[in-house]
Amino acid sequence: MSDSEWRAERFADRFRAVYLTFHRRDGPRGQLQGASRAVLEHLAMAGPLTIGEAATHLNRSQSVVSEIVSHLEDQGLLERDVAAPASHARPVHCTDESGQLQPFEQRFERMVAWQARRDPGASREQLERQTLDYLATMPAWRDHPAVKR
Question: Hey, what CATH topology would domain 31-148 get?
């Protein structure tokens, strides 16, 4: 192996090591990825938004936000306002039809069900603890008496 080849191999090895050290890897950890969490937190604070409004607020393309919203909707973590006419933008929210946060019990059960789909072997107690830990990170829920316990 020539000196140049040796240096190239050494550089490649070091590059891989540095990349793996600093590159964020969102493997299956039973938690939401950062983008999904950002959408939920923003909706919890800002209230119902259309995909376009959320995309503007989050500085992301509408297609990216729409994909995130669809994923969260499939998990039962938020809803689109199906009462809005199809010709209009449908707001997305973690609130009920009157604009209030969904009842804690309803939101909690949906999130426990989502955790159960992600971790089918976990006990109900573990799923509830994971859900409460996550809710404690969200401004809309962190002060709720059930979360503060």
Answer: Arc Repressor Mutant, subunit A (1.10.10)
Who contacts 124 (Cβ-Cβ below 8 Å, separation ≥6)? Answer: 112
Rounded to 5°, the CA angle 24-141-50 comes to 70
pLDDT digits (tens, 9 = 90+) for 11-25: 777 777 776 666 555
Query: CA-to-CA distance for 110 and 63, rounded, in angstroms?
Result: 25
By the 8 A CB rule, do 114 and 77 touch?
yes
CA distance 61 to 55: 6
Distance of CA 19 to the CA centre of its chain: 24
Contact (Cβ atoms closer than 8 angstroms) between residue 42 and residue 53 = no
- What's the rounded Cα separation, in Å, for the pair 68 and 35? 8
List the domain boundaries for the chain.
Answer: 31-148
Residue count of the chain, please give it. Answer: 149
Structure tokens at 74: 């499939």
Amino acid at 70: S
The model's pLDDT over 84-136, given as tens digits with 9 standing for 90+, comes to 555 445 556 566 656 667 788 888 888 888 788 878 899 999 999 988 888 88
- pTM of the predicted model over 0.85: no
